[in-house]
TrEMBL record:
<keyword id="KW-0472">Membrane</keyword>
<feature type="transmembrane region" description="Helical">
    <location>
        <begin position="185"/>
        <end position="202"/>
    </location>
</feature>
<keyword id="KW-0408">Iron</keyword>
<keyword id="KW-1133">Transmembrane helix</keyword>
<dbReference type="InterPro" id="IPR014314">
    <property type="entry name" value="Succ_DH_cytb556"/>
</dbReference>
<dbReference type="GO" id="GO:0006121">
    <property type="term" value="P:mitochondrial electron transport, succinate to ubiquinone"/>
</dbReference>
<dbReference type="GO" id="GO:0009055">
    <property type="term" value="F:electron transfer activity"/>
</dbReference>
<keyword id="KW-0812">Transmembrane</keyword>
<keyword id="KW-0349">Heme</keyword>
<dbReference type="InterPro" id="IPR018495">
    <property type="entry name" value="Succ_DH_cyt_bsu_CS"/>
</dbReference>
<dbReference type="GO" id="GO:0046872">
    <property type="term" value="F:metal ion binding"/>
</dbReference>
<dbReference type="GO" id="GO:0006099">
    <property type="term" value="P:tricarboxylic acid cycle"/>
</dbReference>
<dbReference type="Pfam" id="PF01127">
    <property type="entry name" value="Sdh_cyt"/>
</dbReference>
<dbReference type="InterPro" id="IPR034804">
    <property type="entry name" value="SQR/QFR_C/D"/>
</dbReference>
<protein>
    <recommendedName>
        <fullName>Succinate dehydrogenase cytochrome b560 subunit</fullName>
    </recommendedName>
</protein>
<dbReference type="GO" id="GO:0005739">
    <property type="term" value="C:mitochondrion"/>
</dbReference>
<keyword id="KW-0479">Metal-binding</keyword>
Amino acid sequence: MNPEIPTGSPSVYRRGWPRVQSLRFAMMMSARVGITPTLKRAAFISKHARNVALRSAVVRRGIQTESLPPSASEAILNHQRLKRPSSPHFTIYQPQLTWISSIANRATGGALSALLYGFSLAYLFAPGTFDSTHIIELISGLPEYVKYAGKLILAAPFAFHSLNGLRHLAWDMGKFLSLKSAYRAGYAVLGATAVSTIALVLM
């Protein structure tokens, strides 16, 4: 009896034997034309893709979703935003003359502008008499320490903003742009501001 020929009932023979022969014929033909390695690689790739798909399915099954109202969703979003990194605050940097003088220049300019516009609006819309004569009479009746304190509050920002403005104009002309010269100009502005403030207060 030929061991390659299956034995059993005719129905088993009809079902199994042609399939074995067709598979054997396909393997022989693939070996002749040299595509057996390609088939092996394709089988490996398909098996790997199937494993990846199974792992993805398992991961997806472990994730549970829940329908939330808009208010709860917004609360979760706000909580996540609190943990996001934000831009660093300028207070983490070492204080330096360059950026301190820049901030002071803007602050003094804004304060002097607000004072000027406030005085102008008060002159236009004040219910009583609001002119230079009445202002001088009001100031002359104040104590001396109040006068000097008021002059200091007005003179210091005015002197600094004016002198530091000249420094900015020098930068616009291409002067004092190096780090060393910028610091020298900054210290010169501070010294001139101190002298000018004292002179204005004592006037």
